[in-house]
Amino acid sequence: MATSTPITIADLNQTDNETTLNIGNLRRAYAVPFGSDRLSKLNIDADPLFHVLATKRNKPVNDTHFKIFEQRPFLYKRYAYAVGWKTWSGTGDVPVTGYTVNSADISTLTPQTVGSTFALKMGTDYNSVGNIQNVYGQATNKITIGAAGTLPIFYMENQIIKICTKSATADLVADDFITCRIKSVQTSGYYAYLGVIVVGALKTAANKYLCSFTDATTPISDTYTYSRGHDVGGTKGVLETMKTYVVGNAFKSGSGLPGSMNDQPFSTRYGLTQIQKHALAMDNSTMATELKFVSNEYQRLWSNVVATHKWDIATDLYFSDLYEEADGTRHTQGVVPWTINYGNIFSLTTSSTEDSFINDFSTLLDPRYNPIKNYLFCMNTYYWDWFHKVGGYAYNNLMLGNATATYGAVYANSLGKDSKIGGATIFQYTTYHGPVNMMRDIHLDSSPVKIIAIPMNNILYRPLVGNGINRDTTIYVGVNKIENTGVDSTTNLIQTEFGAELTLPETWAVWL
To answer: What number of other Cβ atoms are within 10 A of residue 350's Cβ?
Structure first.
């Protein structure tokens, strides 16, 4: 007598059964869930930057080509570099020729004596139209001292200027300074020429070398590799000490009106919108066929199309470069080419320390140039892990005891809890510069970018909306259907026309 039930009989090759449409065992189900309730599905958080911008920095635009305006204050721009000098009697117009430009030694001008007079040749490193400045590490768009458009336009008689000096030509920082009143101002080409009288002498005559010279004979020309407020690794001077600033003015009793100030702080850029499209077509017979795990195959594929659409927008927000092709195809500006081409450029390696990173912060967040504090630091996976280690392990912040000759430094840094902004995970790393919001984005894993600092005040996601037509992400159902084409299939379309508005590149930074 049989004691088992034939529950594993399959329909394969059964009598009177065709052999092409096999469904396996006729009776045993193996607990297979014919539905989605027990289907394990991998959900990927793929596009955090797009989420943040679309929810927090979304401002529609009504033109495919849009103008962008920037304004930079003049307050910290009243400086130039002394790149030449000569003796001057103190009377008449200051000359514009005959200057010594190959010696940092100004001892013959007797700067240690109040009442001495001499002349200076002054050049600067920013464009007076727009107050557009050099950006740290940015060689591509550098502005050399005395280049076209850099004429110092702010000098006036009776202003007081401060000139920094050093005791040796190889020194990196200032040892002394003199203050002088301007008696005469002339301009020629892109330089200003000042006739001055010493009103605050050198404290020590040996401090006779101009800080604006990089060695005994060479006046500074390129400034983009110099940190503004601190020495970079003990190899470069502090840029601020190389500058000669206006620090006030002084007039005699009964004098008349001073000169009138003027500046032009405005500059413009432009942006473009870009059209992204993704579609899915399927014949109607397949659409009507119900499958095992997800019965509606069209819906399953369509969810992939939508995810791909968002992924591609996010990728373009990173890597697209502003360009319009001859046929009219437009490409918007992505943050990576923008920052590499125009922003601050720093280096970061596996041997980098917290000290070096804080130095970079100091350069980026110098209040004379960049008042922005609201940043989002997007980074690849490796440095996302690196920052969690730096913020999370005490050994990286403090070395206890005297086991070695090296002492650790106590930093006001701490590991913050992860939070959500616009659906994206944010890690807050606290420094004395303030909180730093950091976000891992796997888009950067396949690029040379390790970290990119995005000033949230200077970026907008700009979908095209105008004349009652919204070109932001829209799903068009049935753009091709049997009813209107006669073809037995259905096509759906998802489309977005968007642009990115990026401004003030000196507030952006990338670590490569």
So the answer is: 7
